[in-house]
Amino acid sequence: MGQGHGWQGTVLKLLRARDFTCTVTAAEDVTDTYRRLRLTDGGMLAATGVHPTMWVRLWFDNAGKPHQRAYTLVDPDPQAGTFGLEFALHEGCASDWARAAAPGDTVEATVHGTGFDAPAPPPSRLVAIGDPASLPAVNSLLAAFPQTPATVFFEGALTGLPFGARREGGDAPHRDVREIPRVDGGALLVEHVRAELPALLDEDVFVWIACEAATTRALSAYVRKELAVPRQRVHALGYWR
């Protein structure tokens, strides 16, 4: 990392980010627009450890310039030194790389900024608001709290996608999943959340939001300011623009 990754790489290096070279071992098209890869970690997980919703920055070539995007690790295995990545495919150099990726290909990964502070006290209910780009993180969050009632607002359709609760043999009774089409740049999702979220709140709720950046900002402001959910019980991060 450093000069080869441009000014972003230089800044991350100064912040003591750690970088690793990962190698693709398997590739699978889950749907026409969703692709799963399996990789060896180049020693990353042994060095960093693993936590829920853990993500790394991957580096891609964008017309000769370095470009980094963050992706959540899927089923990381520190002992084996492997992890998965899932790509919601669209236009862009990251998706182009994922479409073509085959066993033996390598990608550079930087670890910096990722973290997860478990809410205290433990949540009485999880509310996760996401979309295909953040689906791996939604799965990781639900897996971290397997006995906690959860409501998932999902922008898009889950049909054919590897949603964790369904992948394990059907929705658990305490997992309420609400699929909402993406309409008007996320406006329909915001409308549903504003109408339905107040009935789900209690003292120890934990609200996790990871959608398109503008939608995430709107929902985060609503939850924190209008619903007055304490800041330490809200996590919001824009996953794409």
Topology:
Blueprint: H1 6-14, E1 18-31, E2 34-40, H2 44-48, E3 55-62, E4 65-72, E5 74-77, E6 82-88, H3 93-100, E7 106-111, E8 125-130, H4 135-144, E9 150-155, H5 164-167, E10 175-180, H6 187-196, E11 205-209, H7 213-226, E12 234-236
Parallel strand pairs: 8-9, 8-11, 9-10, 11-12
Antiparallel strand pairs: 1-2, 1-7, 2-6, 3-4, 3-7, 5-6
Give an overview of the whole structure.
The chain is built from 7 helices and 12 strands. It has helices at 6-14, 44-48, 93-100, 135-144, 164-167, 187-196, 213-226; strands at residues 18-31, 34-40, 55-62, 65-72, 74-77, 82-88, 106-111, 125-130, 150-155, 175-180, 205-209, 234-236. The strands form 2 sheets. A 7-stranded antiparallel β-sheet has the order 4-3-7-1-2-6-5. A 5-stranded parallel β-sheet has the order 10-9-8-11-12, sandwiched between helices. Helix 6 runs parallel beside helix 7 (213-226). Mean pLDDT is 88; it is low at 10-16.
